[in-house]
User: Fold this.
Amino acid sequence: MTPDEVQSRIAKLRAEVAYHDERYHRQARPEISDFDYDRLKRELADLEAQFPQLAAGDSATRRVGDDRTEGFVRVKHRLAMTTLDNTYDEAELREFHARLVKALGTPELLYTVEPKIDGVAVSLTFERGRLTRAVTRGDGEEGDDVTTNVRTIHGLPHALKPAGDPLFAAMPDLIEIRGEIFLRDEEFQRINRQQEEAGEAAYANPRNLAAGTLKLLDPKLVATRRLEIVLYGLGACEPAPEGFDSQTSFHEQLKHWGLPVVAKFWTVSGIDAAWVAIQELDVLRRSLPFGTDGAVVKLDSFAQQKVVGYRGEGQAARKLSPRWACAYKFAPDRAETRVRAITIQVGRTGALTPVAELEPVQLAGTTVKRATLHNADEIARKDVRVGDAVLVEKAGEIIPAVVRVLVEKRPPHCEAYVFPDKCPVCGTPVVRIEGGVAWRCPNPECPEKVRRKLEHFASKACMDIDGLGEEIVDLLLKHRLIRSIPDLFRLKVVDLLPLKKSGEVWAGNLVNAIAARRTADLWRVIHGLGIPQVGAASAKDLARRFRSLEALAEASLNDLVQIDGFGEKTAEAVRTWFNEPVNRALVSELLEAGLRPTPPPEAAAGGALAGKTVVLTGTLPTLSREEATAKIEAAGGKVSGSVSRKTHYVLAGEDAGSKLEKAKTLGVPVLDEAGLKALLGET
Ligand code: IVH
Assistant:
């Protein structure tokens, strides 16, 4: 390459890396896989190292990215949160070891090998054992305060278990503990299915969904997605750590404090043993229910870590990188195959989801025949065509994805894919809602939509009708015994008898099972209606507030926005749904067919807290969160996760955080435990 070419390549790579940084960190919607991103960064780093005189200006290669977003309070880390560059190369891992041997003057080095969890880094602060803050990495020096959202994470205690065992450390006054927030593959798929159904863009991978969830402004919505966390790193500690002086003993300490830790880690001597551990991890990770994209090898001894320190010392946090750790990433499982066809799935809401039908190929131990293409924009962006050779990848997630087209292998006369302008099932011209990514079939009678709606209604999450799974729904549709949800309640044993040989028992059971659900909980019916944006949690709120389908159908937009935790989007979706004559007809028909949903128990209508919303924060002297919640609910109140003008009381205990501050700002009355008991007439 001529100097000019090198310079222009460097400029181009910097721009590309910056672009993908933005997609990844700020928008949580990457366009390329980590592997391809790392490759760009690596090429840039190599060029910059090789031609330093041509690479003047700010380098992008040590950029950590910056996840800070609007709407969050920014908090400084006491100790900078650094990150690591990745390597895919065993030789580089061995160079890391050689550098340490040289720096420390001994070949006998102990390492820990930990799974590198593919999630979002956070720093938790515990003061006198209580969780007071959770902050994202941000730019390494300052991150976003996501405490409220992090507190919704199941399995994360809000207080450290005190040391019962003298072997373990006394509680530091203040300690920053670093870890990773992630989503299981299964949860990722569940949420993405919902996204697609709602016509919203699917998330690229569990990590991006975890990142997006952590940055939601509504903690209630966060709580509906099961984020998880593991902790593995030490930040600031005041006074200096006592009782743990190595990564291995720190892990023990974390466990002792009752914190969730990595499923397995290895403490090994020397780089050969570390390499063996990495190979073991490569096998183990395939059976883990979440994405593990590599291994982090760390010098075990904190004293040795201190000796070798950081590269880029004296510079901004985003340019620091520990010399004592190295991230080895597993190359993703990829395979080459061909697109046989592109088919379109029609969802319950009519959203059209394109799927690549592939020539079967072995990938990470399974045969892959299909890969989702998400939506029309995604196909256009990747320019996927029928007949194309494509690379498919299975990273953490179970759903295989088309990484890119191998354009050089494109057969001649291969035409650009034209997204259908009609529903492939019923032929109705498709429509796209403003701002949405999904094309939809607007025909309420589209047979595929009808089928999906029926399946949803009968499903466990909604009406939970025994014996009415997808297969039976199909069978009933095929025999034209049902065409809509209300038809289910009109089924008779005699209609069903011809469907199965000696089917009397089956038919009787099914009819009884459906009849038994006539009085199902109101929220189940509401959830079953399939109103966009309304999942189980919102359905429960609606049931609690309106107590009947008739009242809900008449609720005004204003009534709906009043519900704690309901944004305008959800409120509007509900109102719009009930404005549709077909939907109103559906509700009337259901009532005519004898559906008598059961409203939630009249939670102590005359109770001291009837109709009141209470937010809990901090630790109460005697009551646990669950006990306090039970008392509030028994008195007719509702416990909510976030403080707003609609909150009636904040119940605050010790170490109450930002919620208490917010209550004071908004002038919401604050109660302590004694105050609550007094209000309930217990004292
Ligand atoms: S150690 C300065 N340990 O992967 C020390 N990081 O490429 C860096 N990660 O930024 C962190 N699992 O967000 C460490 N067991 C683990 C990890 C881990 C996941 C993330 C972390 C870090 C990145 C390193």
Remarks:
- The longest helix spans residues 3-26.
- The pocket of 2-(butylsulfanyl)adenosine is lined by residues 82-84, 86, 114, 116-117, 121, 180, 232-233, 262, 296, 322, 325, 327 (CB under 6 Å).
- The chain has five domains: 3-62, 74-329, 337-432, 447-592, 613-679.
